[in-house]
Amino acid sequence: MGLPRLITITFSHYCEKARWALEHAEVAFTEEAYPPPFHATASWRAGGRRTVPVLVADDGVFADSSDIVQWADRKAPPERRMFGDGAAERREIETLEEQFDKVLGPHARRGIYFYVLPRRAIMMQLAAQGAQPWQTAMFTLMLPVVCLTIRKSLRIDAASAARSFDKVRAIFDQVGEKLADGRPFLVGQRLSAADITFASLAAPLLLPARFGARLPPVTALPPEAASLIHEFRAHPAGAWALRIYEQHRGA
């Protein structure tokens, strides 16, 4: 069958989580990137649920970022396993990963989309990465409809974005409290799925330089959004996530 195929939207933070886990596990794979809405057809054809990421491997199709992390962990050398040492650490890592998936990921996405969707240049830059020329051309024509669909499906408006940022702050505070004792990782003595998940899903509000796709610079965002990025970067949890990116993304 060849190398596993990872089907993505390049700038998706859930796709970044899967991509980072595979790379950390030293799994060779190919990435097939699609701009929205073309990702839905690619996902469905691969056996997914019209969402990404989807990993197509010899031993199955994995259509959820957490399932992909679990698969990568099974392939990883011992020193790069991502679920700790022993049952207790594994339970804690899985609990944190699930919380970040269900709370941090959706609310970070809604919050940043509130500011990015009206910015045509940013949306075009994000969508063009990895896309075929005809897909980029179609995306250009479809952009107003794509943005309207995203806005409606995620229920994005000023009030919902403000509520989402409050949810993100609560998660950041929780993580900051956990890190207050000076530990280098959330659980255990090496990089885990909890660390990768938090850093990846917080990335839209941190814009780390080592993210697996090109993200817009802070200067391209409106002042209110830039202020929020600076706020989250300065938070102990955000500063820690940026260090995790610098020290472990691509390492």
UniProtKB/TrEMBL annotation:
SUPFAM superfamilies listed in its UniProt record: GST C-terminal domain-like (SSF47616), Thioredoxin-like (SSF52833)
GO terms, molecular function: transferase activity
PROSITE patterns linked to this entry: GST_NTER (PS50404)
Pfam families hit by this protein: GST_C, GST_N_3
Keyword annotations from UniProtKB, A to Z: Transferase
All residue ranges annotated as the GST N-terminal domain in the record: 2-80
Protein name: Glutathione S-transferase family protein
